[in-house]
Design goal:
Glutamine Phosphoribosylpyrophosphate, subunit 1, domain 1; Rossmann fold; nine-stranded antiparallel sheet; seven-stranded antiparallel sheet; alpha/beta; binds fructose -6-phosphate; single chain; 19 helices
């Protein structure tokens, strides 16, 4: 899991590359490096550590090259070290390569190359690539202007796995070659320069016009042109797409961290995600979908498959679909689903949720469902991401770029989009007579999120009380239990405090043994039908000395609890979108209190493109 950047133009490449890397650090941040084309050949500067360390490498300011490639790494093969950092070069130092992805057959390729007298200096899978390119380049006797491209193509043909690759060479000081398969890569274009990146926000301040690549498309970039080739090196045409995101959307906008900014962006994210799809008294529109009543009535099951936070959004989606569409719905973790022989056929609709659209397990699960005859629908935040190229249908949350590793606005946007999707199905099927009430609930959300953010003003005081704890528990029933799961995950990932979530009714079947004097228990209660039961469960932990925080919109005796956060009243159908916000903020303030880097928690990366 890494980030790659490239530049080819008339400006000095190094500052542009470092700027791009800094914005891609969320993808990995254990080593960084750049290679540029200088008058006397290829430069290469790299080391372990964060991107800012690159700036301290002696001589980096002297690089004059206007073509360069760069990489920020999150180690998979080989520990973080200078040798394992990218770019990698072939033995003759004629080609520099950066790579994001995993080469699954690198052992086999390494053996082949070693047998052909190549030496390896790193433990990475990537180092086979420049050497393979060199191998094929030196075997090609035809010294025309496509020789490097042919060598790259032959090398790529040998690779199994996933890759986004940038290649520069001392043999051609005016071009760069890029190619991708199952790993993200976009090309930003201005009149006489091109920017390459693993994602759009990293280069959005330079251009809004992008080429989006499909698997095995090769691109030969010069300053003022981009030539596209298919797998067989036939020339193909490609149009640019203009991206509407505002460049400042990818900045911190005065917030201390991206996570805090993204939490506060939720009213806008939800407003944008609702967009023009839903309004009171008119039918819901999804231009991207063409589901008929006949098709939806034929379904015997919906699978929702995703990982982590996206899977938690799926749990809220299940609740909505089953309640208002009456279609049995199962939610699965992608990495489990793939290997458990799920029963899938053409009467199954499979929905995949992924903020990044690049999560390897989710994409693999999608391919499995497709191969078994099911229709596949991707719910993602990233236009042109890999998942959208695989799915039969794609619908987008419009949360804007999410930079912080811990997902916040993407989760609430996913929940709202799944709710709208459920209503869309229900309108087609005629299974719900309260569609208009539900629409109203959704349309009121942006305002209610603002009120919820206001109601959390003092939550940092509670964070100060509990930030040194070692275990924290989350409880809920029904829809609130899905939010308890998300609250617990958020706390773990950014504060490193161990936490668990439980269905409140399960407590006395085991977990209550863990409750002892002073332990913190956080409960969510937004469903009037379940509130009394949950209050009884909280009473049980209070009796055993627990400190309690309650997030609720119900009429409860607040005196019972140590802290209560009252959120606006709403239908439980959409309540996760409100009740999760205090939990996001609590995790944020606990992590801040502990002095941690909330945007880049240890061991985690934003986009999990390995299985
Ligand atoms: C948690 C988090 C992860 C992601 C998961 C799936 O805050 O961000 O659990 O939700 O890795 O990622 P996407 O949605 O990109 O498929």
């Amino acid at each position: 899991m890494c980030g790659i950047v490239g530049y080819i133009g008339n400006k000095k490449a190094t500052p542009i590359l470092i700027n791009g890397l800094l914005r891609l650090e969320y993808r990995g941040y254990d080593s960084a490096g750049i290679s540029t084309i200088e008058n006397d050949g290829l430069s290469i500067m790299k080391d372990k550590g964060r991107v800012k360390n690159l700036n301290e490498i002696p001589g980096i300011d002297d690089l004059e090259g206007t073509i360069g490639i760069a990489h920020t790494r999150w180690a998979t093969h080989g520990k973080p070290s200078k040798e394992n950092s990218h770019p990698h070069q072939d033995n003759s130092k004629s080609f520099s390569v950066v790579h994001n992805g995993i080469i699954e057959n690198y052992n086999e390729l390494r053996k082949f190359l070693t047998d052909n007298d190549y030496t390896f200096y790193s433990q990475t899978d990537t180092e086979v690539i420049p050497n393979l390119i060199h191998y094929y380049y030196s075997k090609d006797n035809n010294d025309d202007d496509k020789r490097i491209l042919r060598a790259v193509k032959c090398a790529v043909n040998d690779l199994k796995g996933s890759f986004a690759i940038e290649v520069i060479s001392k043999y051609d000081k005016d071009h760069m070659i890029v190619v991708r398969k199952d790993s993200p890569l976009v090309i930003g274009a201005n009149e006489d320069e091109h920017y390459i990146s693993s994602d759009i926000p990293a280069i959005l301040s330079f251009t809004r016009d992008f080429y989006l690549l499909n698997d095995y498309e090769f691109v030969v970039l010069s300053r003022d042109s981009a030539e596209f080739y298919d797998k067989e090196l036939n020339k193909i045409n490609k149009d640019k797409k203009t991206i509407e995101w505002n460049a400042s959307a990818a900045e911190k906008d005065g917030y201390e961290d991206y996570m805090l900014k993204e939490i506060h962006e939720q009213p806008t994210a939800i407003r944008e995600t609702i967009g023009s799809r839903l309004s009171e008294n008119t039918k819901i529109e999804f231009d991207e979908l063409n589901f008929t009543k006949e098709y939806l009535s034929s379904l015997n099951k919906i699978f929702i498959v995703a990982c982590g936070t996206a899977m938690h959004a799926g749990l809220a989606g299940k609740n909505a679909i089953e309640k208002i569409c009456k279609i049995p719905t199962e939610v699965d973790i992608a990495s489990e689903f793939r290997y458990r022989d799920p029963i899938i056929d053409n009467k199954t609709l499979c929905i995949f949720i992924s903020q990044s659209g690049e999560t390897a397990d989710t994409i693999a699960a999608l391919k499995l469902c497709k191969a078994n005859g099911a229709k596949t629908l991707a719910v993602t935040n990233v236009i042109g991401s890999s998942i959208t190229r695989e799915a039969d249908y794609s619908i987008y949350t419009h949360a804007g770029p999410e930079i912080a590793v811990a997902s916040t606005k993407a989760y609430t946007s996913q929940v709202v989009l799944l709710n709208i999707l459920a209503l869309y199905f229900a309108e087609i099927l005629g299974t719900c007579d309260k569609v208009n009430d539900y629409k109203k609930d959704i349309l009121e959300l942006p305002k209610k999120i603002e009120e919820t953010l206001d109601s959390c003003k003092n939550i940092n005081a509670f964070a100060k009380e509990i930030y040194q704890e070692h275990d924290i528990f989350y409880l809920g029933r029904g829809i609130d239990e899905t939010v308890a799961k998300e609250g617990s995950l958020k706390l773990k990932e950014i504060s490193y405090i161990h936490s668990e979530s439980y269905a409140a009714g399960e407590l006395k079947h085991g977990p209550i043994a863990l409750i002892e004097n002073g332990i913190t228990v956080i409960s969510i209660m937004t469903d009037s039908k379940l509130v009394e039961k949950t209050v009884s469960n909280i009473q049980e932990v209070i009796t055993r000395g627990a400190k309690t925080l309650v997030v609720t919109n119900q009429n409860v005796d607040q005196k019972m609890f140590d802290k209560t956060i009252v959120i606006p009243e709403t239908n439980p159908f959409v309540s996760p979108i409100l009740s999760v916000i205090p939990l996001q903020l609590l995790s944020y303030y606990i992590a801040k209190e502990k002095g941690l880097d909330v945007d880049k928690p240890r061991n985690l990366a934003k986009s999990v493109t390995v299985e």
